[in-house]
Structure formats: structure tokens, C-alpha cells
Amino acid sequence: MTEQHAVRLGTVQETLLIPLYGRAVENRKEEPVLRDPRAEEIVDAIDYDFTRFDNLPSLLGTVLRTTLFDHWVADFLTRHPTGTVVEIGTGLNTRYERVDNGQARWFESDLPDVIELRRAFFDDTPRRTAIAASVTDRTWAETVAARSDGPYLFAAEAVLPFLPADEVRRVVDLIAETFPGSLLALDTAGTAIIGGQEQHDALSKVEARMQWACDDPAEITAWRPGARLLTTCTLTTLPTPLHDRLPAADREMLANLAGQRLSQVEEYRLNLLQLP
Q1: Residue 16 C-beta-side C-alpha neighbours within 13 Å
Q2: φ/ψ bin of 261: left (φ > 0), alpha (ψ from -120 to 50), beta (otherwise)
Q3: pTM score, two decimals?
Q4: pLDDT value at residue 1
């Protein structure tokens, strides 16, 4: 019988279990968006009632978001094979298992309770390091800077919207000042999404709530002169190469969703920035 690991996570940290479960559910499909057997193993090894998330439409949304972030990281590593990838708010993500090229340097940072749980499933290696720290604490950035060279890509997936706006700006400033010229991948949620979380299919099942409303990701570039928004999209306007690789049923579902022009879809954006 698989050993069951107890979950002792803070309110916001609990949300990491939603995308984890999404990837595990996706892995069970005959034709999945992505394969992640490790996620399925971890779900089976955690003492938590995942059934509260069964059959939720947003589970696929988390998988599509992760697939796009994978795409951006893989593209970065194609251009910079020995570059450094930093997962901010890594949760129980398994991007290293899916995308690592055998040469890159990886850092996976999250709050201490998350890293404690993560260490039950992942070990540090000479190229892979877990860091227990808040995203707003300079210590994680100092650790990365001291132990690696650029170029850098920072992946902040389903993290920054849970912070107040002033703290988001502080994080962006910290990355830009410590790692000039780096890439930052992040998601943003508009005002209607922030105001409608009580009706959200997944967030309504947990206590955590997003705080930062961002109606136009281009606003972020105004925080740092010289910053550029390289790309921004919704789940229904994914890059063509990625969209075309999706299973046919998922492409059809996204086409139908795009036609409805729902605010919870149109206002949730996935973004890649070049920091100055």
C-alpha cells in the first residue's frame, strides 16, 4: 500500500492541489493534453479528499496553462540549453520531469510548508534545488543569483494573482533588479474574475482567494521602463503550434468556449514578459 503523506498547508498553499489533481486526471485519459504519471503517483500518495475537484471544467484549464508554460520553458531551453529556470511558487509541479534537457539549472521555490511536502517526493540534485522562502522575500533571489548564471526564465504559475497588487509589483521589481534581461511567465486575472471567485468551480471549494486584479497585462510593463510584453493569450487563443497539438475534442471544446466570450475566460490571461 502506498504511504499516505499528510497535508498541512496554509490557505493559499492548498490551491496547489488543484493543478496537481488536474494533471493526474489528465494522465488517466487515453488521449491527454500532457502526460504526467508522476502527478498521478503523488495524488495517490497524499491524504487529501481530491474528490471535491472531480469533474470541474477548470481542471482542464490548469492543464492547458501548464502546457503553455512548458512550451515557453522548452523554447527558452532550446535557445539557452545551459540557462536557468526558476519556478516561483512551484507547489508540486513536475515541470522538471517533463521539460528538463539534462543541462539547465533549476530552482523550485515556495513557502516552507510546501517545500516540506515537496521533499517527500523530490530530491535536490547538483542541477535542481528547492528553496523554502516567500516570493516576496529577497532570500530566494539571492540564493538563485549566488548559485547560477543566466540567462534566466522565471515561471510564476497561479501564484501572483493571490498577492496584493503592491506585493506583485515588488516581486517584479526584485526579479528585474536582480536578474536584468530575464523572462517572466505569469498569469493574470481581470476584475470580473476577482469579483466572481465565490462562483468559481474550483476556488469555491477552498478558502483562498485571489487579490490582484489586472485587466491589461501591458500595465506591468509600465512598472519597469524597457520591459516588453512578448506575448499574451487566453486559454482559447493559445499559440497555434500548441493549439494544433491538442486532442481534437479539446480543440472543439475551446472553439465553443471562445464563441461564448465569457468574462472568466476572456479576462484570464497567460503572459510572457521580457524584463529590462
Answers
A1: 29
A2: left
A3: 0.96
A4: 44
